[in-house]
Amino acid sequence: MYERNRTPVYFSGCVATASFGIASGSATTLIGRLRRLYVEFPRFVTYAAALFSALGLTTIMLDTWGPAIFGRLLTPDAATLPYEVLLLFNLGDLGGVLSSICLVERLGRRGCLALGFFGQATFLLLLVSARRALSLPLSPASLYGVLVPIGMLAASFRVFHWDAAQLWTLEAFPTELRATALAVGKITMQMAAAVALSSPLARSAFAGDAVGPATLLAGFCAVLAVSGSIATACLPLETRGEPMV
Fold first, then answer.
1. Count of beta carbons in the 10 Å neighbourhood of residue 107
2. DSSP-derived 3-state class of residue 186
3. Span 192-210, pLDDT tens digits
4. Which long-range contacts (CB under 8 A, 24 or more apart) does 25-30 make?
5. Dist CA 65 CA 193 (whole Å)
6. Are 67 and 127 within one domain?
7. Are 9 and 69 in the same domain?
8. pTM for this predicted structure
9. Does some domain include residue 239?
């Protein structure tokens, strides 16, 4: 990235490699761009792939199995999670998007990663604790007055680390490599989610009653906390306010 009033830190390396790529005819090919990513920015692209893999193991997993888990937790006697609850959880997502727009440049990428990972984990644990404190069958006041608002907050916080991952990947790489770097991250995210979802452990845990929904959500919270700790501690570069090259 650019230092204030100075030459870009990696500008000379980018120019040299780009010149070689153009001369060899590989700069405009996918293989050429991937080569540049892994030669010039190995730390950045490795971090991006790991970060998106963490999203695949948390956000994508919850997107896929969330309605079933929340249904077993909140309305165990119903066949599916009520439509109104799903709608309210999605409104929580919308609230997170609006909040992220207002806060993303104030908190920076590291701050948004921390807020997203740890905020979602905190409110999911709070949801599990509140559910255990309430007796079945749940009254509408308990469901819609206590549990659903906590779930909406948990849904809103997931937006922050999702946005931070995409923004950082777009900002950390030069223009000609930006889309390829984001594609690498998205591919690793889907691969991580596919491997996790197809594992026998995941299928037995989510499909049967061997593992309760509270235990599953607690496991997700542990993964969120570990992922958030690593993501914030290992962020190679804070890109907030830095010029894009």
1. 18
2. helix
3. 999 888 877 677 666 656 6
4. 27/176, 30/180
5. 11
6. yes
7. no
8. 0.81
9. no
